[in-house]
Amino acid sequence: MPTDDLPTSAGGHCCWRPVWQDGDRCVWHTECAGKSVEALTARGNPGRRLDGAILTDVDGLSEVPLSGTTLANATLSGADLRGVRLRDVDLRGATLGRVDLRDSDLSGGTVQLRYADLSAARLRHADLSNVDLRFATLRNADLVRASLVGAKASGTTLTAATVISTRLAGATLRNADLSDALLRRARLANAQLRGATLSGADCYEADLSDADLQKAVLEDARLRGTDLTGSDLTDATLENADARGVDLSGATLTRTVLTRANLFDADLSGTTVYGAVFVDAKINDRTEFGFDRGSATSLSDATLTDLDRLGWRYRIIERLSRQNALPEQARRAYRRRKAVRRRRHRKKWAVAKWTGATLSGGVMRYGEGPWRVLGVSAAVVLAGAILYPLSPGESLYVSLVSFLDPLAAARELPAWARYVAAVQSLAGVLLIALLVFVFGRRSTY
């Protein structure tokens, strides 16, 4: 075989084995299907180099000693390798379509399956821990309850593969294609999935906690009950994703696209959503935002960057709540956003803006507290009643009249008290106007 067809530095290879039957090739390289195990083992140890071997549809191939061999570019389609234990095997570029590897053990990091074709392979309960599967093809493969812990599978194609309850913790799946894969209850904690494609994948109750999903594509993915706590979804796309009941607490959603995503009953407590897109996203009253856990840093210790990101978070919550007819939650997010903005003015020493924001929050709760305005109005009336030099009952009456109409009571007061009445009247006009504004604003939700 030419050097270019073999693993790097393997060198060219010329088969030295005797020809089989009346052909011109040995039993390992003869192009025929269904070879017997007896024929393959008749001449003892086949040697290390079995590159390009043709072992299509061989039954009981697991009885053939293959550990320590090089099977680069070999063909093992449909072969029976159930329960086999392979060590130090190089299967780079091999074709293993429909191969039966159920209950097999290929762990240990010594098996090379780079560029191998495992389409429709049966790998149930197989142990592929730490195996090198880079750029391999596992289209329609059956990986139910298999173990790929720590496997190197960057660029691997797992389109429409069945990966139910499969262990993939710590696996590297960068730029892998898992489109339409069945990942129900799969365990992918701490997995590297940067740039991976999971469009249409079914990830029901899968564990993707602390996974790296930067720039991953999860369009139309089914993520019901998926655990994404602490995961990094920066620049990821979850357009039209069914994320009902998903746990995104502590996740990073910077610049993530969640257009038309269904977030009913989801937990977004403590998420970072700076620059995220939630156009037409759906939430309900059980969608958790964890207002009191929105930032690990208190406002007093927060930097300007922290405040910008927190303000963006509350703006997103406010907008989503308005779009989904949740007025109380929208008001709460609005007040939190204004409080963050006030703190930002203080950090930047913008005294005028900070003063205005403080008065707005104290007097009318940023336009959301009619009772706050009424309370301040009552305080102004009581303060006037204390200042006027009249009996308690008469002072309270004059103060109330002055608050509403200064001309009605000004003639009965001494000169200095008329100035108090004028100030009180001005405060009354402003507070009544603020009360009208607050009621008008609340009616718009």
UniProtKB/TrEMBL annotation:
Q: Where are the transmembrane segments?
A: 416-439
Provide the alphabetized UniProt keywords. Answer: Membrane, Repeat, Transmembrane, Transmembrane helix
> Sorted alphabetically, which Pfam families does this protein's record hold?
Pentapeptide
Concerning InterPro entries, the annotation shows: 5peptide_repeat (IPR001646)
- Its recorded name reads Pentapeptide repeat-containing protein
Q: Species name for this entry?
A: Natronoglomus mannanivorans
